[in-house]
């Protein structure tokens, strides 16, 4: 008898939380980005909740934006993710450990050897989120006058990945391959090579269309559609009632400082300076970007569809940067996750707490038991590796495929 399908859950840990003003919440750990005990506690909380993995992002340059805005953020200083995950490997026993590393500004042999080391230290729990660098500021840190063009970055990424896998095959390891994004080039690379795909999908219909599209591409490339787990990002805001959850969301929105909101919008829009435009006017047509192509497209579509001003637009993305936001009781949030999971929109979710540590604590204490009660999520780990948790092929088979 076939076991019932269960959702995957990742915990996306961003220093003090994902809401742009989350660090200002009275229960947030504003200095969490440089506190290893903070991360250790978060990893253990996620493991107590039987999450598949924790996930850390990274960039090889200062975030884009003016100093006035950057000095009012809590996400500009944080640990290098691979080093931190190596430390967390000895503080945890089961949970997967996924780090972001760019293929545009790294050496393939170094990346291969570093992840092989994390795979050994963790007992098979590592994952590599391959990115091509959406932050154009990275170019200057590596002696380039300008960032690589988007299409060029993806051609480089595929070659880079093959060189990494050659080195992994020689060592008999295969960390789980993660990708993020929704551009045409990104979807094609994911369909050929990824095992987990992180994506920003704010609406159900769009998520279903994306899910169908990516699974069909996987099949066209001769792969089993179950070999790629599609995991949209979700920012949950919990309350004892729906009214309380909405009140908590409004409180977070009130903490957003305009200069910071505008800086975030400029970054997500492709790095264009919007500071001289009227905040209550419309977002103008923007030229194509070579940075976050899919995220710029999502932003422009949202602005056009809802007729949002620049101020309204940065307020809309301040909580989750274009990812889905769900506010309500634990039952409400479980209902919405179940609907997406069962209606062909997701294989699981990358949970993005608005502020930390309470946002993760609350999700594990309230939503996870509700999902377990419905038979949608595990009550205990049945394996010891990240591949076990995700139901993916093991290293020998995966290495041969690669």
TrEMBL record:
GO MF annotation terms: monooxygenase activity; oxidoreductase activity, acting on paired donors, with incorporation or reduction of molecular oxygen
Residue ranges annotated for the Luciferase-like domain, each copy included: 21-345
SUPFAM superfamilies, per the entry: Bacterial luciferase-like
Residues that, per the record, bind FMN: 58, 100, 150, 154, 183
Xref: CDD domains: Nitrilotriacetate_monoxgenase (cd01095)
Organism domain of life: Bacteria
Pfam families according to UniProt: Bac_luciferase
InterPro entries tied to this protein: Diverse_substr_monoxygenases (IPR051260), Luciferase-like_dom (IPR011251), Luciferase-like_sf (IPR036661), NTA_MOA (IPR016215)
Keyword Flavoprotein part of the UniProt annotation: yes
UniProt keyword list: Flavoprotein, FMN, Monooxygenase, Oxidoreductase
Family to which the UniProt record says this protein belongs: Belongs to the NtaA/SnaA/DszA monooxygenase family.
Name of the protein in its database record: LLM class flavin-dependent oxidoreductase
Biological source species: Pseudomonas nicosulfuronedens
């Amino acid at each position: 008898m076939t076991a019932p399908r269960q959702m995957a859950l990742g915990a996306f840990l961003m220093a003090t939380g994902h809401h742009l003003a989350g660090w200002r919440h009275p229960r947030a750990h504003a200095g969490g980005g440089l506190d290893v005990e903070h991360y250790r506690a978060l990893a253990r909380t996620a493991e107590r909740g039987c999450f598949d993995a924790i996930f850390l992002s990274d960039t090889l340059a200062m975030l884009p934006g003016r100093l006035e805005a950057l000095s009012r953020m809590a996400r500009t200083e944080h640990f290098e993710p691979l080093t931190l995950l190596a430390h967390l490997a000895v503080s945890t026993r089961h949970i997967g450990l996924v780090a972001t590393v760019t293929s545009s500004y790294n050496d393939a042999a170094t990346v291969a050897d570093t992840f092989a080391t994390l795979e050994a230290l963790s007992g098979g729990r590592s994952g590599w989120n391959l990115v091509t660098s959406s932050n154009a500021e990275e170019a200057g840190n590596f002696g380039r006058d300008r960032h690589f063009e988007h299409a060029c970055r993806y051609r480089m990424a595929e070659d880079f990945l093959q060189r990494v896998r050659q080195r992994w095959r020689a060592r008999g390891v295969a960390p789980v391959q993660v990708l993020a994004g929704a551009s045409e080039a990104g979807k094609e690379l994911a369909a050929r090579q990824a095992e987990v795909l992180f994506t920003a999908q704010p609406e159900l219909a769009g998520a279903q269309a994306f899910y169908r599209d990516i699974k069909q591409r996987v099949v066209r490339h001769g792969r089993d559609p179950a070999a790629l787990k599609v995991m949209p990002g979700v920012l949950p805001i919990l309350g004892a009632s729906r009214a309380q959850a909405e009140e908590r969301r409004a409180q977070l929105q009130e903490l957003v400082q305009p200069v910071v909101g505008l800086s975030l919008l400029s970054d997500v829009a492709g790095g264009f300076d919007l500071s001289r435009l009227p905040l209550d006017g419309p977002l103008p047509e923007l030229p194509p970007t070579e940075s976050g192509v899919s995220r710029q497209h999502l932003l422009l579509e949202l602005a056009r569809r809802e007729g949002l001003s620049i101020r309204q637009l940065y307020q809309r993305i301040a909580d989750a940067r274009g990812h889905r936001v769900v506010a309500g009781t634990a039952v409400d949030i479980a209902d919405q996750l179940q609907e997406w999971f069962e209606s062909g929109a997701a294989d699981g979710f990358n949970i993005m707490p608005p502020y930390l540590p309470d946002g993760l604590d609350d999700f594990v204490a309230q939503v996870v038991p509700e999902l377990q009660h419905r038979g949608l999520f595990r009550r205990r780990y049945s394996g010891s590796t990240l591949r076990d948790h995700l139901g993916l092929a093991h290293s020998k088979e995966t290495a041969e495929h690669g």
